[in-house]
Amino acid sequence: MNPSSITVIHLIAQLRYGAGRYVADMAIEQARSLKYNVQVCVSTDADEYWRTDPILAEELAGRGIEVRTIGDFFHRRADKLHQCAAHLRELKGKAGGQFIVHAHTAMAAATGYWASPDALIATCHGWGSGRPPDIDLQDSLAYQLCDSVITYSNHWADRLRSELAVSDPKVVPMGICLNRFSPIDKESHRDSGPLRIVTVCELTARKGVDVLLDSMPLLWSRMPDTELHIIGYGDAADDLKIQAAAIDPGMKRIFFHGAVPNAYAHLSDYDLFVLPSRSDNLPIALLEAMLAGLPIVATSVGGIPELLSAARCGTVVRPESPEELAQSLIVAAAGGRRSMASAGANGERYVRERLDVRQTARDHECIYLDALKKRGRVAHVS
């Protein structure tokens, strides 16, 4: 099959944060190395925080990949989903060749199904806790419509089976474009001064930054000069700043930096990365911290324990436990900067050897071609 006869539509609610970065990297690699015709279709912005990042959209446009807004497939309204599907059918009519929809939410999968693609693939990026049962039912039914459902950790594959009745989810490790991450000069790493801890995440309840703040007085009882730096923004930012001011009057040890473009470039300023998530899969921010050579302390949620165990670059603690989080940060720092650098080097090596988007794109190609073959859309798969 001529790869240029394949059109892939990545369908994601908002091109934002970690999942958006992953989709952008994948789309660029598929267009570059596999020569697919690739487009990214997004839902209308929902509010100040649920909106497509214009920087990602501009980056894709610069690579010749169009980002289209096709309507509202974010709010789970059937009439809106059908309207979006109509837009996809128009794109299919113009595409020629094989038309594949790669959905990145369950409702995107339902939308893609109604567009009658030649193959329908979904990636499950995980979901938050406390969802009402009817949402699980909707997502389960949507995923049953797909030729294949992908996720990037064994944890979420197990949950797809047990909670959403997805019979055969495919585990494909998340890949990122390593060319965007020049190795950091290790000589520039800090070798003196107070411990500087950093987290990079959206400031929402799901990421558990409030738990991290609660852990700081416990940590300061042993390491009083330690600084905490928080990079990111979100709908919990104001509440977190109020909480931080009560813990650290004058804000001399807790610093909010807001959204920082290319946070990776600044990670050499820090000693230790922490991610206190209540729910997650494999966060891009965690991979960037590993590429920067930082040791990790994170919660035992989603695919994080699998990743840190395989990479030997950090420890996990239970979510919702400021005590465990503080103790693990103290232990991580106790061995000194040489020990932290050694753990960080393990993490960097693991990502560079195992999580290249080029391999992920090839893995996805196999899944696409298998789906087309099973539907009788291709005579053979070479």
List the SSEs and their pairings:
Elements: E1 6-12, H1 17-33, E2 37-42, H2 54-62, E3 66-69, H3 78-95, E4 98-103, H4 106-114, E5 119-123, H5 133-144, E6 148-151, H6 154-164, E7 170-171, E8 196-200, H7 209-220, E9 227-231, H8 237-247, E10 254-258, E11 272-275, H9 284-291, E12 296-299, H10 304-311, E13 314-317, H11 322-334, H12 336-354, H13 357-374
Parallel strand pairs: 1-2, 1-4, 2-3, 4-5, 5-6, 6-7, 8-9, 8-11, 9-10, 11-12, 12-13
Helix pairs in contact: 1-2, 1-13, 3-4, 4-5, 7-8, 7-11, 9-12
Structural notes for this entry:
The protein folds into 2 domains: 192 residues, Glycogen Phosphorylase B (Rossmann fold), CATH 3.40.50; 176 residues, Glycogen Phosphorylase B (Rossmann fold, 3-Layer(aba) Sandwich). The protein is built from 13 helices and 13 strands. The chain starts with 5 loop residues before the first strand and ends in an 8-residue tail after the last helix. The model has no long low-confidence stretch (mean pLDDT 94).
- CATH fold type of the largest domain: Rossmann fold
* Total discrete domains: 2
The strand line-up of the biggest sheet is 3-2-1-4-5-6-7
Proportion in β-strands: 15-25%
CATH superfamily (homologous) name of the largest domain = Glycogen Phosphorylase B
Number of strands: 13
Give the averaged pLDDT, no decimals: 94
- What sequence of helices (H) and strands (E) makes up the elements? EHEHEHEHEHEHEEHEHEEHEHEHHH
Count of helix runs:
13
**What ranges have pLDDT less than 50 throughout 5 or more consecutive residues?**
none
Q: At CATH's second level, what is the architecture of the largest domain? A: 3-Layer(aba) Sandwich
Q: Structural class, from secondary structure content?
A: alpha/beta
Biggest sheet layout = 7 strands, parallel
- The termini sit apart by 8 Å
**Percentage of residues in helical conformation:** 40-55%
The CATH C-level class name of the largest domain: Alpha Beta
Radius of gyration: 21 Å
Overall geometric form:
globular
